[in-house]
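Narrative summary of target 7.
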Amino acid sequence: MIWFLEGQSSQREVIMGARAALPASLRIVASHRQPRGEITGQADLALLEPQDDAERIDWVIDNARPLGVRVVVAGRMGASYERHRQRFVDAGIDLVTGGLSIETFDRVDDKSRFTAAAEQAGLACVPAITVSDAEQLQQAYATLSAQGAVCVKPTVGIYGQGFWRFKEGVDAFRCFANPDARETSFEAYLHAYRQPGERPALLVMPYMPGSECSVDIVCEQGRVVAAVGRRKQGLHQTFEREGAAVQLAVRAAEHFGCDGLVNVQTRDDPQGLPHLLEINPRYSGGIGYTQQAGVNLPGIFATRRLGLKEPETHWLPDIRVKPITVAVCSRPSLQ
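Modeled conformation, tokenized:
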């Protein structure tokens, strides 16, 4: 039995991918802190997680043992569970957090530390200057803008939250009228950053104009066993299994000791060469799209983790997918 704890928005697709690959006799458990029947209803057993983070570890272990759960997938709170790995080992449970130790999370969750570690390892990475106040921000911008366009993002965060590209001559109101464009003037950003209040540490980076590749990966104890890259092409996404971006992502995942379903982001420079943006030691929101290209990454992960035959891969080249919103029935299936 395998248990998928609360994860990213794609927890539903991950459960469905595992279900498609596992024998019907092997039960899947899923849980969430909210009554999300549209997600957990895809499993054989749905549970409601405690709201209190401090209670969750005891609750998971206490429920996993009588249910006969062999594998627990931490989902969105990998670092919190990783700190208690020995308790799961003592209970005879294979805990999958996204990393092999807390060091993995310490090095990849802080983008400043990740950049430094990647550069030290010889992995092509978007160079960055870490700043923590307005004066440092101004100095970093002056240094990098002499070479080209500049962008900024917090040292800690997910989903691209806090990313902005500085653009000369852009309407200062643009960030309010069209926030999805992620463009503003440096002057407007600096003015806001100077205002009273706590500000996060930032990475100031050269803006690379090439395409971004999101690589979904299955790792086992720091070794990559399957990977698929996704690129946004307008309204669609395309897939790739080879090439420089996927190769770089694989090297990074192995170097940083990833384990489980993880995601690596790269971006191409003006010459088309990929550079690392970040590693997310958790599955991505778009991992389910890879099944359209003939690769069931959640299924590969689940079967191999349980010592079963993995699903066959039938790679479909030149596939494009377009995400759409659909309505699904959501029943209160949580216990």
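The domain at 104-109+210-321 is CATH 3.30.470.20 (D-amino Acid Aminotransferase; Chain A, domain 1).
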